[in-house]
Amino acid sequence: MGIVNVKKDNFEDVVLKSKEKVLVDFNADWCGPCRMLRPILDEIASERSNVKIVSINIDDEEDLAMKYGVSSIPCLVLFDGGKEVNRSVGLIPKDAVIEFIGE
Amino acid sequence: MYDIIIVGAGPSGLTAAIYGRRANKKVLVLEALSYGGQIINTLKIENYPAAPNISGFDFATTLYNQVKDLGTDIKFEKVIEIKDGIEKEVITTKGSYKSKTIILATGCENRKLGIDREEELIGRGVSYCATCDGGFYKDKDVAVVGGGNTALEDALYLCDVANKVYLIHRRDEFRGEEGLVDKLKEKNNIEFVYNSNVTKLNGDDKLSSVIVTDKEGNDKEIMISGLFIAVGKIPENENFRKLINLDDSGYIIAPENCHTNVEGIFVCGDARVKEVRQLVTAASDGAISATEAIRYINERK
């Protein structure tokens, strides 16, 4: 499953109403660590079927970034059943992302 | 069995890999996090010869691809121990590797203030990178802690973004360039807080204020939503202390030729004791350490 871009309009459907866990990657084009993290997330997305990984560009989606209190990127937020269950800020290695997502 | 194992895939380690591979040595680079090191946080590199305005990410990625194309093995594993011997051994969280030589290119990371709740509030008001996170504080009040060039540059950058910027420094004069201090003093939305340390972070799920304590022990609360910490860098070499001589700050002791106290183990980049820690001096060390490692190997054939 590839990584899809999420906007304000489809956030509820894609993230909050999702049956599986959703890993939201808040990022920006100009952010080096975000660009480093992306290929790691791509790999995980292709390896795992029980988690959906989505990307939110904080420059395009300021409202979402503000609503979820994102003030440092890259910021990974894990949603399960429409609720935030875990959060991680900064570039982390692949093993740590996998641990962050859990089973 | 490798000829050279390089610990760290920042600019110095990757440069060492280029020199090693071009001398036809079998090279393994081990990296705990991701390639590029600290430079990936830089929006635009403006002081590297012949590459003006390249982003840190593009610089790192170009360098990484260059190293891979030369046939270097690169593994993302954290090194926890190195062992000396005729064959040296590098132990990671996932396995162990044998090599004739080792180059330590472990770099530096941001120094923390070391106060309560600092870790917890990272990304919730506490940041170590003004150019990365400054944009989130448009029209808000923020503070920068530190007295070097990074702190001054961060404060200057934030003056253009934020409503008000406090610059908190433990002394009454700055270590950084005078020109930067002059530029800052021309800003009308900056307040200098001298002779003070940040001693407490307040806020529930995000930062709302900090307490600063001055030399006389008086506390003052400053209401801010962002605190940018720029109090320098620290090396991460404690795992090697048993074998390798470090200075009091944890930097690896080695002269310009990058030789450590152990034969066949070299150091390059920010991890080495040196005066100037810049991209170009990191690359320079990479070349020197690899050349010395190659010489060591060839002399023992």
Please provide a written account of the structure.
The complex is a heterodimer of chains A (103) and B (301). Chain A is an alpha/beta fold and 103 residues long. Chain A has one domain: Glutaredoxin. Chain A has four helices and five strands; from the N terminus they run E-H-E-H-E-H-E-E-H. A five-stranded mixed β-sheet of chain A has the order 1-3-2-4-5, sandwiched between helices. The model of chain A has no long low-confidence stretch (mean pLDDT 94). Chain B has helices at residues 11-22, 56-69, 130-133, 149-159, 178-185, 279-299, and strands at 2-7, 27-30, 73-75, 79-83, 88-92, 96-104, 108-110, 126-127, 141-145, 164-168, 190-193, 196-202, 209-214, 219-223, 226-229, 233-235, 265-267. In chain B, strands 1, 2, 3, 4, 5, 6 and 17 form a seven-stranded mixed β-sheet that branches. In chain B, strands 8-15-9-10-11 form a five-stranded parallel β-sheet, with helices on one face. A three-stranded antiparallel β-sheet of chain B has the order 12-13-14, with no helix packed on it. Chain B starts with a strand and ends with a helix. The mean pLDDT of chain B is 95.
Mean pLDDT of chain B: 95
| CATH hierarchy, class of chain A | Alpha Beta
Helices and strands of chain A, in N-to-C order?
EHEHEHEEH
User: How would you describe the shape of chain A?
Assistant: globular
Q: Could you give the order of the helices and strands of chain B?
A: EHEHEEEEEEHEHEHEEEEEEEH
Class by SSE composition of chain B: alpha/beta
Structure summary:
The complex is a heterodimer of chains A (103) and B (301). Chain A is an alpha/beta fold and 103 residues long. Chain A has helices spanning 8-16, 32-47, 62-67, 94-101; strands at 4-5, 21-27, 51-57, 75-80, 83-89.
